[in-house]
Amino acid sequence: DTGVSQNPRHKITKRGQNVTFRCDPISEHNRLYWYRQTLGQGPEFLTYFQNEAQLEKSRLLSDRFSAERPKGSFSTLEIQRTEQGDSAMYLCASSLKSRLSYEQYFGPGTRLTVT
Amino acid sequence: SQQGEEDPQALSIQEGENATMNCSYKTSINNLQWYRQNSGRGLVHLILIRSNEREKHSGRLRVTLDTSKKSSSLLITASRAADTASYFCATDNAGNNRKLIWGLGTSLAVNP
User: Fold this and answer.
1) Do residues B84 and B110 make contact, with C-beta atoms less than 8 angstroms apart?
2) With pLDDT > 90 as the criterion, what percentage of chain A qualifies?
3) At B69, is the pLDDT very low, low, confident or very high (cuts 50, 70, 90)?
4) Of B35, B42, B99, the CB nearest to A107
5) What confidence category does residue B99 fall into, taking pLDDT thresholds of 50, 70 and 90?
6) Which residue stretches of A10-79 are H helix?
7) Which one has a higher pLDDT value, B97 or A105?
8) Beta strands in A10-102 (DSSP E)
9) Cβ–Cβ of B33/A41 closer than 8 Å?
10) In this complex, is the C-beta atom of B97 within 8 Å of any C-beta atom belonging to chain A?
11) Span A3-37, pLDDT tens digits
């Protein structure tokens, strides 16, 4: 399967713990996005990478959140000192920088539950 | 922040009927995309319509776009039980990052 993969699929953690999620985009895609989705809502943009450069971060991304994309391949999203309000589905998407292609390809998501 | 609003929030129809979902947005766009989400497969891209297009078809899907009203509609014809899912519109504001701004979604139930 050459789609976007995310690990883990589910994570349960206690408040105050740190968690890290991984996203492996489609191999030739140079753009990578992180979104967060809560129940009954649409996804909300968190951050964007083009190759290894993080070019935009949403105000939603507090200083407890950090994302990296070393070497422009996989990406990690870390949440430090988790809070119950961080419970959500974290979605990763990738796309190809092209004037002709705009669609994003999504992974299955990582569902985070903070207890 | 959410860009768009879909209506209805929930829709229940019988198999074979058509389903129409609407989306409104707030700012100028480069294109508008519709995605489907179900628990089994996550978010899947369905169709994209550019800001200079008014209507587009793909299989049983028909999308319209009215930029003067900042609205779009998605029509699914001859619905099937497998179409049961949540449907989201997302707008691409033509910034350099091409991030998508999403609506709240319409939950569609197609009853066999």
Assistant:
1) yes
2) 77
3) very high
4) B42
5) confident
6) none
7) A105
8) 10-13, 19-24, 31-37, 44-50, 53-57, 65-68, 75-79, 88-95
9) no
10) yes
11) 999 999 999 999 999 999 999 999 989 999 999 99
Q: What is the mean pLDDT of chain A?
A: 92
Quick one: A103 exposed, middle or buried, by C-beta within 10 A (0-12, 13-18, 19+)?
buried
d(CA B45, CA B93): 17
- Give me the half-sphere count of Cα atoms (radius 13 Å) on the Cβ side of residue B57: 3
Taking an 8 Å cut-off on Cβ atoms, the answer to whether B48 and A93 are in contact is: no
Res. B1 pLDDT band, cuts 50 70 90: very low
Q: Which residues pair with A111 in a beta bridge?
A: A10, A89
Burial letters A82-100, b for 16+ CB under 10 A, else e: beeebbbbbbbbbbbeeee
Task: Give B43 to chain A, closest Cα distance, Å.
Answer: 6
Spatial distance between the Cα atoms of B22 and B5, rounded to a whole number of angstroms: 8
In order, the DSSP letters of B9-76 are SEEEEETTS-EEEEEE-SS--SEEEEEEEETTTEEEEEEEEETT-SEEEETTEEEEEETTTTEEEEEE
